[in-house]
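Thread: quick sanity check before group meeting

JM: Hey all, I'm pulling together slides for Thursday and realized we never actually wrote out the predicted structure for the chain we discussed last week. Dropping the sequence here so it's in one place. If anyone has concerns about the input, flag it before I start.
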Amino acid sequence: MNENRYDLHCHSVYSDGTKTVTELFEIATSLKLAGISITDHDTIKAYDEAIGKVQDYPLKLLPGIEISSALNGLSVHVLAYGFSPNDPLLNRFIENLQKERWARNLKIIAKLKEANMPLDLNKLKEDIGVIGRPHIASAMLKLGYVKSIREAFNEYIGEGQKCFVPGFRPEVPEVLEFLHKVRAFGIIAHPHLIKNNRLVKELLSQPFDGLEAYYAHFPSKDEKKWVRLADNRDWIKTGGSDFHGEIKPYISLGGSWVREDTFQLLYQRYLENERLQAIK
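JM (edit): ok, ran it. Output follows.
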């Protein structure tokens, strides 16, 4: 395949992926991808490491993030691209998200302790940094509380289970308003997975800049609907694998991707925002 391919949706160990930044770059290079975006959940900490390290690889790196949000009480994930990781407004916004995530983790740990499965959350934070449920599940496995990460979710910390605690999620309009304030593009993540037609209709009425038309292992026939909806709105059509490593072993990096023109549209906004931050 001669055309440049860019996977704009993958996760690192800084959120709920199992691959380090270096491992993501190594895999992307082996697959001859032209570039990637690391879109960790509610954090851009990977870019503290990634921006310098990507210089050693034949790759371009587009900063991204996947923000956990809600619309009318229903969970929605928003992908954002084109921002500068150095933007102080963005970093304050993310810091608030992380404070809410930490408060949720404390409540999950308290419930696990009540179930006779104590964990040292501070030790986890020292070892990993940004903590999510997959890290808690991995710690449960390591301590012998469960026999698999799947069991940890299915029996204890998955949605609706005895130690589950719902997370804080800002409303979609608030998220989009903020993203546009920092000159970032707001994208509906994996609309293929949204089964609530009313929610889809309401999302399509929001001032998004695009949607993730090409996703994971979905066949092209399932993507046509989202391509058409994006085209009708003159929205950007992004794409990516949603690679998590061993958390989702059935999804490979580069499983979905975008071409050069889409990547450059987003990448040029990132470069513009970097220049703006440099002169402030």
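AS: nice. The chain has two domains: 6-85+169-279, 95-157. The chain has a mean pLDDT of 93.
JM: adding both to the slides.
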